[in-house]
Amino acid sequence: MSDPKQKLTAQQVADAGLDDWRLVLGVLRARFATDDFASAARLAQQVGEAAEAANHHPDLDLRWGRLDVAMASHDVGGITSRDLDLARTVSALAAEAGARPDTASLQAVEVAIDTSDPDRIGPFWAAVLGGELQGPQVRNGAGDVPTLWFQDTEDHAEPRQRFHLDVWVPPEQVQPRIDAALAAGGTLASDDEAPSFWVLADPDGNKACLCTWQDRG
Which CATH superfamily is domain 10-101 in? Predict the structure, then answer.
């Protein structure tokens, strides 16, 4: 795992011992809680300086009382040892600053639309979202809108649910989310593809998927 250009598997990332971090939707993510905005801003500056020194630059999201850090090696399309090394550095800086890791709230959301012909509708959604069509999805390079994923379905004439949310969470957060959804009147529509994803339905039958990195090759 020392080759900085070697793309790591999800299991290798999970086994790396990064307690503050989780792999969510192909990105290594952490959230650090602080006591106020100023302390979060100071941590962001320290992380920025460490990233500059490493010549490896994560995405930072600074809010009141928290700093979110997300990273991947875009040149190889995944996580490498560079990400693991910088993650350890960031965790050390956060611990020194007294920031508290919060893995339970980490998540990422994709929007999926069911279609039998993604080539027909894909260009429209790329135009509307100001993104690029990349295979069965539209991605926005700025990262300020969720990825739109085209979910394959059979051709049909009768109306049915076309959009659903893919909610990506750390594996240990799946069951709490399922429990909360069931308590709120939802149902578990299918766990046939677990632990890759679980399908939940609201009381009207509208569906959403809870997704993890597990069992994806």
Answer: Transcriptional coactivator/pterin dehydratase (3.30.1360.20)
